């Protein structure tokens, strides 16, 4: 099965002609993506990655994860931005909410909170720990600080030799401080391909190793992405849902709908929302342009931001993601007294009720002036998750090229760093 784009609640806002008017621009952006003729063409490695990834590398990741599952209680994944959001997203989506079995995967280096790191150090006391430090540049401050602290803890707890055997590095093949450290200390290491940028790297060892360790079937994840790679190849907007999604976004943006709210009725999607926000926000927000990516989890947020969505400023459009198959068949039980008046629901499952909540919300927000795109996914599993990841990456590249920006750079993230280094007196940055 594949992801389909339901545009029922968009039709009263956008004429079909407006979309087809973009067809030529889509053709030309498609060329940029597939022939590498656009800005940022050095970072197109993700495009054919699912169909070309070395099988031996997948096996090496699985073997490393298997070894970790035997030797380790807690795997600490250190990284920020594209170096952690993908793994966190997929882990949150596919792992059970309660009582996860096996190895615990936790994250560090995604901020500079001393409280968090000290609590983590207290938590791992007496546990068997390994670290997977992930940084493409190998020089990012946040993960470097976390790694320095955890490395010191590990060397103290295990001694040099054993600590070194519990550290896995994922970084560039040759460049950066982390590669040098890894080679010198003899850490096990994995390579982030040079032509794949952080936010497009979830299907490389960046995401795959933490996910395999967390018990995710990474071959299924890759197979879904591979199917998406094959499916999302047409330039015809009728046939390519990722391109149609991208084109609708740009039509809406041109009309002043400058904020996109990713909405899901599945709370396990919260991490995926964060990954998606980074992918689109960092790819498109430049040159004074871009759709601001926001997210909600319903029905939780219908009791919070729902009011704004219904009646607030009308610069919003919504993208609702739903999983169509009822995988739990969770029934609402009959109650003799019916004090809560819910007996009218006894022949329904929670999935059906949730689905009607989605339909009701889509109707209401549409009537309140919010254009709504619906992405319908047949099933919530590793295969379809891989498909979804690739779908968004392809849509993002298309959307960014349609709006005339480089989908693969992030010049703006440097500015705060320069200021911070200057304020902290980093050698070479003093003024
Ligand atoms: O998408 C990106 O390129 C960024 O978000 C990076 O992933 C992030 O800044 C982390 O960079 P690095 O992996 O070099 O530490």
From TrEMBL:
| Catalytic center residues | 282, 417
Against Gene3D superfamilies, the record matches this protein to: Glucose-6-phosphate isomerase like protein, domain 1
EC number in record: 5.3.1.9
User: What's a GO biological-process term for it?
Assistant: glucose 6-phosphate metabolic process
The alphabetical list of record keywords is:
Cytoplasm, Gluconeogenesis, Glycolysis, Isomerase
- Describe the reaction catalysed, as an equation: alpha-D-glucose 6-phosphate = beta-D-fructose 6-phosphate
Q: Which CDD domains match?
A: SIS_PGI_1 (cd05015), SIS_PGI_2 (cd05016)
Key word ATP-binding present: no
InterPro entries with a match to the protein in the record: G6P_Isomerase, SIS_dom_sf, SIS_PGI_1, SIS_PGI_2
For this protein, the record's Pfam families field holds: PGI
Cellular component terms per the entry's GO annotation:
cytosol
Q: Which family does it belong to?
A: Belongs to the GPI family.
- What does this gene product do? Catalyzes the reversible isomerization of glucose-6-phosphate to fructose-6-phosphate.
**This chain belongs to which protein, by name?**
Glucose-6-phosphate isomerase
Species name for this entry?
Planococcus massiliensis
Its lineage opens with:
Bacteria, Bacillati, Bacillota, Bacilli, Bacillales
């Amino acid at each position: 099965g594949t992801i389909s784009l339901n545009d029922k609640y968009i039709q009263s806002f956008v004429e079909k002609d407006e979309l087809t008017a973009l067809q030529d621009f889509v053709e030309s952006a498609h060329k940029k993506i597939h022939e590498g003729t656009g800005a940022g063409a050095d970072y197109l490695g993700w495009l054919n990655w699912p169909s070309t990834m070395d099988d031996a590398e997948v096996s090496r990741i699985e073997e490393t994860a298997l070894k970790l599952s035997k030797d380790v209680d807690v795997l600490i994944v250190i990284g920020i931005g594209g170096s952690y959001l993908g793994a966190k997203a997929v882990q949150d989506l596919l792992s059970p909410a309660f009582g996860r079995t096996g190895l615990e995967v936790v994250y560090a280096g995604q901020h500079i909170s001393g409280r968090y790191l000290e609590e983590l150090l207290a938590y791992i006391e007496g546990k068997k720990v390994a670290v997977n430090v992930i940084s493409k540049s190998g020089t990012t401050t946040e993960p470097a600080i976390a790694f320095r602290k955890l490395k010191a803890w590990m060397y103290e707890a295990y001694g040099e030799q054993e600590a070194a055997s519990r550290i896995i590095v994922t970084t560039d093949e040759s460049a950066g401080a982390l590669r040098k450290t890894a080679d010198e200390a003899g850490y096990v290491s994995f390579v982030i391909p040079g032509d794949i940028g952080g936010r497009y790297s979830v299907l490389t060892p960046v995401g795959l190793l933490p996910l395999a360790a967390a018990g995710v079937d990474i071959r299924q994840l890759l197979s879904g992405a591979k199917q998406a790679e094959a499916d999302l190849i047409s330039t015809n907007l009728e046939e390519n849902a990722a391109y149609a999604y991208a084109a609708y976004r740009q039509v809406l943006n041109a009309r002043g709908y400058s904020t996109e709210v990713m909405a899901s009725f599945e709370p396990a999607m919260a991490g995926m929302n964060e990954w998606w926000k980074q992918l689109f926000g960092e790819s498109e927000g430049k040159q004074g342009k871009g759709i601001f990516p926001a997210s909600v989890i319903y029905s939780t947020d219908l009791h919070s931001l729902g009011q704004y969505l219904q009646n607030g400023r009308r610069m919003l459009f919504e993208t609702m993601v739903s999983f169509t198959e009822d995988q739990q068949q969770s029934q609402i039980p009959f109650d003799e007294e019916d004090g809560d008046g819910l007996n009218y629901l006894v022949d329904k499952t929670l999935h059906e009720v949730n689905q009607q909540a989605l339909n009701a919300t889509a109707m209401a927000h549409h009537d309140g002036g919010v254009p709504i795109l619906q992405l319908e996914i047949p099933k919530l599993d590793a295969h379809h998750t891989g498909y979804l990841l690739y779908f968004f990456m392809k849509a993002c590249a298309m959307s960014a090229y349609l709006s005339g920006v480089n989908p693969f750079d992030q010049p703006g993230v440097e500015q705060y760093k320069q200021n911070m280094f200057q304020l902290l007196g980093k050698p070479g940055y003093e003024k």
